[in-house]
């Protein structure tokens, strides 16, 4: 059976090692273009890495390091991270006007 992550995201954006049936306890996330940080995600013992713009060579590195990568694209990753950051800033500083442009 496919995992929840695999059912939610199309196979075409999965790179690196196969997700298989592994238990996901640690997720590494980098908004924008993060393929160059695949080794850092491997060293952090991430079970899956979510980022954008994963090149062929970073894909191979992730396969060798047994790291599944969900390549969500550069722009989407940046926008998603900005929304999360904005949410947390508004929660932390409720009296400040914080705008996401």
* Content-based structural category: alpha/beta
Counting DSSP H or I runs of 4 or more residues, the number of helices is: 4
Number of strands: 4
Largest sheet: 4 strands, mixed
Uncertain stretches of 5 or more adjacent residues? none
What series of H and E elements makes up the topology? HEEHEHEH
Cα Rg: 15 Å
The helicity comes to 25-40%
Strand content: 15-25%
Distance between the termini: 41 Å
Q: Based on CA inertia axes, which overall geometry fits?
A: elongated
Instruction: Calculate the mean pLDDT score and round it.
Output: 88
Can you tell me about this structure?
This protein is of the alpha/beta class. 39% of the residues lie in helices and 19% in strands. The protein has four helices and four strands. It has helices spanning 4-8, 38-43, 56-64, 74-92, and strands at 14-16, 27-33, 48-52, 68-71. A four-stranded mixed sheet has the order 1-4-3-2.
Brief summary of the model shown:
By secondary structure, the protein is of the alpha/beta class.
Which terms would index this structure?
101 residues; elongated; 4 strands; 4 helices; alpha/beta; single chain; 4-stranded mixed β-sheet
